[in-house]
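2024-03-11 09:14:02 DEBUG pipeline.ingest accepted 1 chain
2024-03-11 09:14:02 DEBUG pipeline.ingest length=543
2024-03-11 09:14:03 DEBUG pipeline.predict start
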Amino acid sequence: MNQQIQPIFILPEGTQRTQGKNAQRNNIMAAKMVAETVRTTLGPKGMDKMIVDTLGDITITNDGVTILEEMQIEHPAAKMIVEVAKTQEAEVGDGTTTAVVLAGELLKQAEELLDKEVHPTVIARGYRVASDKALEILNEIAEEVGEKDEAVLRKIAMTAITGKGAESAKEKLADLAVRSVKRVMEQTSSGLTFDREHVKLEKRVGGSTEDTELIEGVVLEKEAVHPSMPKSIQSAKIALLDCAIEIKDTEIDAKIEIREPSQMQAFLDQEEKMLRNMVEKVSVSSANVVFCQKGIDDLAQHLLAKKGIYAARRVKKSDMEALARATGATIVSNLQDITIKELGFASRVEEKKIGSDDLTFVTGCKNPKSVTILVRGGTDHIVDEAKRAMTDAIGDVAAALKSGKIVAGAGATEIEVSKGLRKFADSLAGREQLAVLAFATALEVIPRTLAENAGLDPIDVLTELKAAHDKKQKWAGVDVNTGKVMDAWNRGVLEPLKIKTQAVSSASEVSQMILRIDDVIAGAKDTRGPQGPPPGMGGMGEY
């Protein structure tokens, strides 16, 4: 008797499953599309993207990670590529586009090997070997840099800013980036350390990008709490309070019974006395500036103003910490503990109007371990992009100083590493050699993209670059203005080694991970409307 075999359902209804080569193709296609999106922004001739969100807010930028975050990418493999950009941003602060473009190209080269029936795990293993060798070559060719090489550090910052909207003021911005990093960097037993939080970037619309300035101290988005307080205080003695200058409400429900009017007056008098005592505590400590993380009562504001004390309230925790670092003050949690020992010092605290906002400037600190860069520009979009350019420049200078090693940009490093990998591939046997050669070819995407974005012929440019490197010109890069080969080092196109090593390792790891996926099982969404499963999500996992 011919029995009909019943299909077995192992996955819930509406689950979408893609297997084998289809799964790989889809994932590689998604990753390549992400890379293509940001590719046109690479280099000094890169273009910008305008992204409009659901609320109609506009972002104009050519910063890779900003573009990818604002785009709200949904595809799971594409999200993995976005993670590469985020890692690059967190680790260095620059080179996000390079990392993403490289990841996309590694997968594109892998796809060609898959078509030749090379197994994905062989490609992944070859990529791992190539990545290790590439990092080795990078460390060999890198040059040393130290704190005293200010001219070199400025060139690194200028390279980061070139190609961004703030390029017109790149000399000024580069100088500020170097000064701010050198100011807050600290020497520890394990070497130089830099915390990006210690350089605060405050943006204000108005003026031009050239008006951007470095304040050796802290700028707060706060004004004096009382109009009759002094607008400027010289030789400021600063108290930082983590407690309110107001009467606390009781934690438990308390009932106060007042039987006659005089008792009411006595109660109010007592409250006033408590507030006067609090202000007196501040005054006795000899503080003439108070920054309070919590509230300040109206009466306390009046009393502080009468004593000529400048006060600001509801200051952010991060700003309080920055003030503590810059002025040497201790944050006090109890007013009873405040003495002259807990105070910080600055030569001036003043309220200034910048644009339409009142800001408090704390300047002239002896050895500020916290500084502020006030970024200016003609419109919101210009200021935002200038701030992103400064973030990149600061990250690059800090990365260069931390590792003490730098390389040239303009595609020179990638061609040199590619050349080294091809030589290394000759020593390998088997199919892994093909993967290492594919890795070497993928690295050429950076100079090729720089040429394409400048409207040059990429084949001519790459041929000339390779010829120059074969003649032992290790820093030969592409001059995007003329299309000719230039010595990128002498031209001052410099980048920290960390940008390259991080981009190579991240791009390599993510491409290996994507290559090893041969089955994508997307769970059915709960939010299915009356229309049934989403498009292309039919089937129930029938095996």
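2024-03-11 09:14:41 DEBUG pipeline.report Residues 261-284 form the longest helix (24 residues).
2024-03-11 09:14:41 DEBUG pipeline.predict end
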